Amino acid sequence: MMPTEPAPQLSPELARRARGLRALLTDVDGVLTDGLLRYGASGEEIKAFSVRDGLALKLAREAGLVVGLLSARSHEALIRRADELGLDEVMLGRGDKGHAFNRFLAERGLGASEVAFVGDDLPDLPVLARCGLSFCPSDAAREVQAHCDVVVEKPGGRGAVREAVEMLLNARGQWRDLLANFLPPS
């Protein structure tokens, strides 16, 4: 049985751009997490990630995209999560995201138009302004929302990446096939 609500769709122009993508990068804090910093009694930082966002990143890899993180912060929890998801690229502690993006493009032999990026705050703007398709959560900074191709309905840490990936893979004609892998044979 297929879902009754249709998956979110990109406009025809954005769908055309989605079909030309070869990579997906995402920020972490405020995108894969809710953006709140939590510290335990011993001072350790605690992160909470959406399982649905994680599955979406795995599905994007399965669909043939290079998938990675690009974050100004670095933390053991981020490294562990990236390892669990089998991500291709983990760029942490990169305060200058524009420089890190340029390096990623050069190392992977990609053009900026071949990369989608999900960001939520001002440090993400250098990448969002150049990438082929830009997304942000519904609770992203308004300056970021103004510069993104798509503002998804979900907030950061609550399925924003899942929503973006579904849109991308739908536009590429891959979502239904990936979804079929989870459904029992009819």
Commentary on this structure:
The protein is an alpha/beta fold and 186 residues long. It contains eight helices and eight strands. It has helices at 12-19, 51-62, 76-85, 97-108, 125-128, 142-147, 160-171, 175-180; strands at residues 23-26, 38-39, 45-46, 66-70, 89-91, 115-118, 133-136, 150-151. The strands form two sheets. It has a six-stranded parallel sheet, sandwiched between helices. It has a two-stranded antiparallel ribbon with strand order 2-3. Helix 3 (76-85) links the parallel strand 4 (66-70) and strand 5. Helix 1 packs across helix 7 and helix 2 runs parallel beside helix 7. The longest helix is centred in the N-terminal third of the chain and has 12 residues, at 51-62.
Structural features:
186 residues; alpha/beta; 8 strands; 14% strand
Q: Based on helices, strands and strand pairing, what is the structural class?
A: alpha/beta
Radius of gyration: 16 Å
End-to-end C-alpha gap: 9 Å
Overall pLDDT metric: 93
Number of helical elements: 8
The geometry reads as: globular
Q: What is the chains' assembly state?
A: single chain
Helical proportion, percent range: 25-40%
What is the strand arrangement across the widest sheet? 5-4-1-6-7-8
| Order of SSEs | HEEEHEHEHEHEHEHH
DSSP, total strands? 8
